[in-house]
Amino acid sequence: MAARAASEAVSTAAERVAVSKSPPFRRGGKKLYLPNHVVSFLRPKPGQSPTTATFEVPLTFNKFDLRDYLYHLYNVEVTSVRSFINQKMPAQRTIPGKFGGQWYRPRAQKLMIVDLVKPFVWPERPAEEDMTPWDHKLFVAVEEGHSKEVAQAEAMGSWGPQKMRTDQPATRERKELRKMATQLLSGKQQWTPGPRGYVEVETNYSGHTTSGEDGGSSAAVGLSDKVETAQTETAQAVEAKVDAVSKRAEEQAKKPVAENFSHGQKI
């Protein structure tokens, strides 16, 4: 009886702990495997309450998705969720050499503001010179390069003038290739197929090893001799096999055939 009472007490305590850990709302039953959603936690504006958080979510997200997302991944409870879509202002594509380009509307932005149960205070933004551990300079360089590539792609788009490759500014790689070609044509540099060049090495039948330019012809002769010898040996082997088969057939034809009349079979 004592053991049974102890087990019931333990089960009751476990149920109480489970109930206390469960969220104060009904959780969704939709399961997601390998999600590819990108949710960004935005830095609050000056004077914003620490119990309010702003997130940038995909356009397909709803309030229940964000609530369950915060609870299951970060164990963060929220009391309310507000959402709105921030429409971007129309923009005009710029075309070099022309007055204006085509008008378009950039992709909209969906934001959600939640009220947190526990407040969260953002840390102070580090100074730019203190961002070395996060590779801030590399990040800025990548962003600038990406913006430059996008601008070039827009300039070379179907709505812009198509330039020939010779009219485009030469890249660093093309300048290096042009310099190497000039040195080769002027004779200042010799062509080598590879970083170390190519040296042909071949051993002929006399046992001598030839290499380089002088040994090229002898190596070719040695290789042709090997091919001819292999072909001759193959032909001789085939002829010998054919002769052996023919001889065996002739011997079988010359043997007398004895008949066994008792069984009616040939022996």
UniProtKB/TrEMBL annotation:
Keywords: Ribonucleoprotein, Ribosomal protein
Region (Disordered): 248-267
Listed GO CC annotations: mitochondrial large ribosomal subunit
GO molecular function (one): structural constituent of ribosome
Keyword ATP-binding on entry: no
GO biological process, one term: mitochondrial translation
Name of one Pfam family that matches: Ribosomal_L23
Biased composition (Basic and acidic residues): 248-257
Alphabetical list of InterPro entries matching this protein: Nucleotide-bd_a/b_plait_sf (IPR012677), Ribosomal_uL23-like (IPR013025), Ribosomal_uL23/eL15/eS24_sf (IPR012678)
Sequence intervals crossing the membrane: none
Family listed: Belongs to the universal ribosomal protein uL23 family.
Record-given protein name: Large ribosomal subunit protein uL23m
Organism (species): Gnomoniopsis smithogilvyi
Designated gene of the protein: MRP20
